[in-house]
Amino acid sequence: MTEEYAASRYEEACALLPLRLRTAALLLPLRRKAQVEEIRLRIGRQVYLSLPDGEEPLTGTTVTRSDLEQTLDKAAEYSRYAAAETIRHGYVTAAGGFRVGLCGTALPGGAGNEGVRDVSSLAVRIPRVREGAALPLLPQLLEEGRLSSTLVLSPPGGGKTTLLRDLVRLLSQGTEYNSPCRVALVDERGELAAVHRGRPQLEVGCHTDVMDGCPKHLAVPMLLRAMTPQVIALDEVALPADVDAVCAAAGCGAALLATVHAASLDELKTRPVGRALLACGVFRQAVLIEGRGSGRKSRVEQLT
Q1: 116 strand-pairing partners
Q2: From CA 255, how far away is CA 145, in angstroms rounded?
Q3: Per-residue confidence at 106, pLDDT binned at 50, 70, 90?
Q4: CB-based contacts of 143: which residues, under 8 Å, 6+ apart?
Q5: Rounded distance between C-alpha atoms, residue 64 and residue 51, angstroms
Q6: Choice among 41-45, 136-140, 142-146, 245-249 with the minimum mean pLDDT
Q7: Which residue in 39, 86, 132, 149 is deepest, having the highest Cβ count within 10 Å?
Q8: Radius of gyration, alpha carbons of the chain
Q9: Could you tell me which residues come within 8 angstroms of residue 184 by beta carbon, excluding any fewer than 6 positions away?
């Protein structure tokens, strides 16, 4: 991924902002633009830019309620009704694959949340496709050209989603190490493929079927019944129901590829969900992502 490409993605994200904030945000030097991971807007505060070394204020800016409303309207293409389902879950996926998380006053009803009013903060996440990032790891994850079920571990913000997306792309389109295969991608929060109007905004491969916005425990059995996948990929297994879905899929002939928050296998074992994932015996190996930014490295550890 070039610095120019990374900076251009930041500039595309800035297009969601009102003119006053966009003008200030675009004044950053190229190198800094390429490093920004999120743009955070909090009412009454300065705009903050999330970078690998922390949050940095955008001087001379103060976020108003109107700024938040304009940004959310632009992300939803001026139809919050059409985006109501994802707003109910706390985010909107904008054209280009930008996920806009939101906070405010929740509207609980029935068995869940019905929406959010009085928006108080927004987080514009800037996804960047790093094609080839997973290629050095791929041969270690294959057995006779087929994926062995694999966990991907890192702390929050450590690059799990980026690596998972590239693994899905490589498995789907095929490489010198593997033939193309059918991948079913569970994109519960719209971060992996960033589906917008039915079309993935981020490259996940030509043989990949995406179930967008659906809880993992519902999506996995649906995909197994309907799409006959050879690989099922999931981001951030975090709930007991997610673990149950993974374990139930184990005997159905598909390899599993999933991410989980943990800095190490030892840390994973301290958590109930982590222990349950390891105990079900589905996963043969784990990819551990260590470090941040340019110092980030990945290695494979066998689990069985």
Answers
A1: 106
A2: 12
A3: confident
A4: none
A5: 23
A6: 245-249
A7: 39
A8: 20
A9: 208, 209, 211, 223, 224, 227, 229, 231, 232, 233, 254
What the block records as the tokens of 25 is 């945000």
Q: Using alpha carbons, select from 301, 9, 288, 300 the residue that is nearest to residue 158.
A: 288
As a residue count, the chain comes to 304
Pairing label, strands 183-187, 195-196 = unpaired
For residue 24, count other CB atoms closer than 10 A to its CB: 17
Dihedral, CA of residue 10, residue 12, residue 13 and residue 19, to nearest 10: 110
The yes-or-no verdict on residue 295 having pLDDT over 80 is: no
3-state SS assignment for residue 148: coil
Q: Which residues contact 27 (CB under 8 A, 6 or more apart)?
A: none
Could you tell me where the DSSP H helices lie in 216-262?
A: 216-226, 240-249
Q: What sign has the CA pseudo-torsion 256, 222, 154, 265?
A: negative
User: What is the spatial distance between Cα 276 and Cα 48, in angstroms, rounded to a whole number?
Assistant: 38
Both tokens of 217, joined, read 């425990």
